[in-house]
């Protein structure tokens, strides 16, 4: 029980736990861990709510039908699981601006939220373009030794490292 | 295969939710629901993200392929193309750095109380996914189809048996992790 209250676990313990979890999702649910389609479906559901009946006819939403599925519930579960872990270890905090960001760009809320929004657009668009995210390609795809997932995972980090260095070392100076 | 369990829709939604709770718990315990840890990785100053991912991949790889050899699971390699992986990967990478969370850890960050994730980040990712759906019909058979890799896996590419690829790949990952530790990262 004490272990569940620790602020942080060894990254290897966490990685092994996630790996073992993936055995069980394959075994019990015939599914691999992934997250980004849940956002695509949610986006379509919101568009249908405000926009209309034609949204489900979009070719993308014919492929990823607008319904709450296993992966959608998984992503909802992540919110709850992270909350439980944070509460147990006393690391739950409502913060607007992360410390690393504040150290370079200041602690004003507006710029950080605007940047998160722009970054989110790239993330949502890029993950669906690539056909997966750090979970779907980066963990589940690579563990199945899928070639496209290994290529995607490498380019997630190439793009990420270049963009982070530009943002913090060039723009942020 | 536990096909009778796989077909129970309500049960599967509950199992998905339960797996998510565990996943979110582990992500938070690993520290990767934090912007500083993720951006720290991309700045090559903190290797937590890579260590977690590689440990998960090696563990998952051995277990899932063992279950497959026992005919208890089937694999789900994603179909895709070079153009999807390279250009989608780079766009994702920019989002990774600028947002500071990925889709899974964004959900974890929301649970952790981080409001930049819950507001701008969540709104952005929904808009981005919606924009992609809007253009998908026009690029599906052109840009996205270029350099089709289908569902090719490493054993298929190298024309070797599953375990002849799995064991060296897992050993290589352990070696990389060992080298990271040795380098003091």
Structure explained in plain terms:
The complex is a heterodimer of chains A (173) and B (185). Chain A is mainly alpha-helical and 173 residues long. Chain A contains nine helices and no strands. Chain A has helices at residues 2-5, 11-29, 36-51, 59-63, 70-89, 99-105, 109-130, 136-143, 147-171. In chain A, helix 3 (36-51) packs across helix 5 and helix 8 packs antiparallel against helix 9. The mean pLDDT of chain A is 97. Chain B is mainly α and 185 residues long. Chain B has nine helices and two strands. Chain B has helices at residues 3-6, 9-30, 35-42, 48-69, 82-99, 103-112, 115-139, 154-158, 162-182, and strands at 80-81, 148-150. In chain B, strands 1-2 form a two-stranded antiparallel ribbon. The termini of chain B are far apart. Chains A and B meet through helix 2, helix 3, helix 4, helix 5 and helix 6 of A and helix 2, helix 3, helix 4, strand 1 and helix 5 of B.
Fill in the keyword field for this structure.
heterodimer, A: 173 residues, mainly alpha, 73% helix, globular, B: 185 residues, two-stranded antiparallel ribbon, 9 helices
